[in-house]
């Protein structure tokens, strides 16, 4: 039976992440969104906390073992500060974690030590495609094996830090099965569009379209080596990453709305005492707690190799997507007209919250 309280080590990590979220990410969130940029200093400060490093064994240069429950707790806490900043700090995880989970021994030794050594460096992954029927298990980007060579063809969207990335982990359809492929930045046929994606939110996070025009890589660059890998566990980790980040965004909106409702007066009383507002706050908190427990349970199942982990992760992700949109919308509603003002944090939280329905693949535990 899993515990409902973090252990001492997890609590120390949560406290460190919370300090960074409140003292660094949150105060810089609005300026970063408006200027469409995140400072390297801000990203590196988050990187130094060591979330990814603590998930990598010592044999590959890290100082811990991967634990999905711990990562879920930390990711929620960091996203509480700012979603764009969190995704930026953890972008290298999109490349490193799948290699840790499914890579060959050669791939682990080649990439993991240099990713986690020293300062933050851009390694990323490309999963999402610009398609109305996008399905991570039925990708339109294709991979073909021809003796000792693999050819990749297709287009990816919303790839964070693609222009600066040293390498991109590209997911493609190989004979009806989704597989990952390591594509170095200087590969012939790989092109990154100059213009960044223009989105409703997450404008501080640089995301790009990536085109693969008969990009050829060696068979050894297939994630897991020539024999490949099981994509389902990676997809479950991506879904839990998205659910965790959604919890952080929802928690932030709820806290802003609750505090505002306890201070704002209308007709001689605090609006938190108005039944309509009180019911909204109660429903927001209830949904957050429900999705948090669902996410924790799925993370525990991932750590313990339970057979139904893929279903559990899917349920947590689907529930969190609906929850964060409802909570952030209510956050704006409780603020009234003030919530619609660009400088108000709940406005940005609602715009960012809307993205979870389509941006699977930007966070991983």
Please report the total strand number as a whole number: 9
Q: Strand content of the residues, in percent?
A: 15-25%
Q: Helicity level, as a percent range?
A: 40-55%
Mean pLDDT: 93
CATH class bucket of the largest domain: Mainly Alpha
Q: Which stretches of 5+ consecutive residues score pLDDT under 50? A: none
With strands numbered from the N-terminus, the spatial order across the biggest sheet is: 2-3-7-6
Tell me the quaternary state: single chain
The SS-based structural class is alpha+beta
- Largest β sheet strand count, sense and barrel closure: 4 strands, antiparallel
Separate helix tally: 10
CATH superfamily of the largest domain: Butyryl-CoA Dehydrogenase, subunit A, domain 3
Radius of gyration: 20 Å
The rounded distance between the terminal residues' Cα atoms is 21 Å
Query: How many domains make up the 3D coordinates?
Result: 3
What are the secondary-structure elements, in order, as H or E?
HHHHHHEEEEEEEHEEHHH
**Shape label:** globular
- In CATH, the topology of the largest domain is named Butyryl-CoA Dehydrogenase, subunit A, domain 3
CATH architecture of the largest domain: Up-down Bundle
């Amino acid at each position: 039976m899993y515990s409902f309280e973090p252990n001492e080590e997890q609590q120390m990590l949560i406290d460190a992440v919370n300090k960074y979220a409140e003292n660094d990410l949150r105060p810089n969130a609005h300026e970063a969104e408006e200027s469409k940029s995140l400072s390297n200093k801000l990203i590196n400060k988050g990187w130094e906390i060591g979330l990814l490093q603590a998930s990598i064994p010592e044999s590959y240069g890290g100082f811990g073992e991967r634990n999905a429950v711990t990562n879920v707790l930390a990711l929620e806490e960091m996203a509480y500060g700012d979603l764009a900043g969190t995704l930026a700090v953890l972008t290298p995880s999109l490349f490193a974690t799948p290699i840790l989970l499914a890579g060959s021994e050669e791939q682990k030794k080649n990439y993991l030590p240099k990713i986690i050594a020293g300062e933050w460096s851009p390694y990323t992954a490309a999963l999402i495609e610009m398609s109305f029927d996008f399905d991570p298990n039925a990708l339109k980007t294709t991979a073909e094996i021809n003796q000792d060579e693999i050819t990749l063809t297709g287009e990816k969207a919303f790839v964070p830090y693609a222009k600066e990335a040293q390498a991109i982990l590209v997911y493609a359809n190989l004979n009806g099965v989704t597989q990952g492929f390591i594509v170095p930045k200087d590969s012939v046929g790989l092109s990154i569009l100059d213009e960044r994606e223009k989105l409703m939110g997450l404008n501080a996070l640089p995301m790009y379209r990536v085109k693969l025009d008969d990009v050829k890589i060696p068979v050894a660059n297939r994630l897991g080596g020539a024999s490949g890998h099981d994509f389902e566990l990676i997809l479950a980790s991506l879904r839990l990453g998205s659910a965790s980040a959604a919890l952080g965004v929802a928690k932030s909106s709820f806290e802003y709305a609750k505090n505002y409702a306890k201070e704002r007066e209308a007709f001689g009383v605090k609006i938190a005492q108005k039944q309509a507002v009180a019911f909204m706050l109660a429903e927001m908190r209830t949904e957050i707690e429900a999705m948090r427990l669902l996410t924790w349970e799925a993370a525990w199942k991932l750590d313990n190799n339970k057979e139904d982990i893929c279903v559990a992760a899917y349920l947590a992700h689907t529930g969190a997507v609906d929850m964060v949109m409802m909570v952030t919308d209510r956050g704006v509603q409780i603020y009234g007209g003030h919530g619609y003002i660009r400088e108000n944090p709940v406005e940005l939280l609602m715009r960012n919250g809307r993205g979870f329905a389509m941006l699977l693949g930007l966070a991983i535990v």
